[in-house]
Amino acid sequence: MRTGKFTAQLSIVLCLAASAACAQQKVALDNYYNHEFSQKTGKPYHYLWDDEADSGFSQFGELFKEQGAEILTLDAGPEESSLKEVSVYIIVDPDTPAETKEPNYMTDKAATVIARWVKKGGVLLLMGNDKNNAEFDHFNLLAAKFGMRFNKELLHPVEGRQFDMGAFVDLPDHPLFTDVKKIYMKEVASLTCSGKAKPVLTGNGKTIIAECRHGKGYVLAVGDPWIYNEYIGHRLLPEDFENMQAARNLAILLLSNGKAN
């Protein structure tokens, strides 16, 4: 249950302070492990900054820019040189063979590069998907560096537009959920935590969001890319869902744990 209450004035002060700390940071979104192509346009799409359709992250990207950060896309595997100037690195929904003819799988070498970058102060956001729409065997090579594992499950199925089937209302007292009472996630994977990894959000005994401090850095893992354009606002979601505010909180949380380069 929530134990803290935040006034509107306090939230404004916190946001202003966070914006000052977040300015000049670079947020890199992966387009290597998630590299799907639209059958209509032949161009990369799905959870990308420049995808303005329901499938995209364009509105999520705007929330980072709202905080003064710069957003960019990495279309190659991670290297120390490519991550050097990046404060936040986001990997979402790694491809399966059904989605991409020749998927780029996570390797232990790449996972080691990323983990070393996090240890030095990088902020990493990992977003999975349900077992039918994301590759986990290789992705977990990276998650395991932080005591996390994405499980091959499909939780919170939703029938049609019965949105309350995907509702989470028992939200913890955590910066991700400041001024948020209800969010929507459907068809998610769970996470298993060990070591320093700790659950952030649970549902029916399953961990849906987890976090970990790793050296000077921070890692957040979520069992779904739940704030893509289709479900970040109220085009479809009823007004009582607050995914947009949670997404804004997420951007602030990530940036406040990062540092300008």
Question: What can be said about this structure in brief?
Answer:
This protein has 261 residues and is of the alpha/beta class. It has one domain (8-256): Class I glutamine amidotransferase (GATase) domain (Rossmann fold).
Present the secondary structure layout.
Layout: H1 8-22, E1 26-30, E2 36-37, E3 44-45, H2 58-66, E4 70-74, H3 80-83, E5 88-92, H4 108-119, E6 123-127, H5 139-143, E7 148-150, E8 167-168, E9 183-184, E10 191-193, E11 198-203, E12 206-214, E13 217-222, H6 229-232, H7 243-256
Parallel strand pairs: 1-4, 1-5, 5-6, 6-13
Antiparallel strand pairs: 2-3, 7-10, 8-9, 11-12, 12-13
Give structural notes.
There is one protein chain. This protein has 261 residues and is an alpha/beta fold. The chain has a single domain, classed as Class I glutamine amidotransferase (GATase) domain (Rossmann fold, 3-Layer(aba) Sandwich). The chain has seven helices and 13 strands. The chain has a seven-stranded mixed sheet. A two-stranded antiparallel sheet has the order 2-3. The chain starts with 7 loop residues before the first helix and ends in a 5-residue tail after the last helix.
Could you list some keywords that capture this structure?
about 260 residues, alpha/beta, Rossmann fold, seven-stranded mixed β-sheet, two-stranded antiparallel sheet, 7 helices, globular
- Which CATH architecture is right? 3-Layer(aba) Sandwich
Question: In this structure, how is the largest beta sheet organized?
Answer: 7 strands, mixed
Spans where pLDDT lies below 50 across 5 or more residues = 1-14
Kindly state the number of beta strands. Answer: 13
How many structural domains in the coordinates? 1
Q: Class, according to the CATH hierarchy?
A: Alpha Beta
Task: Tell me the span between the first and last alpha carbons.
Answer: 37 Å
Class by helix and strand content?
A: alpha/beta
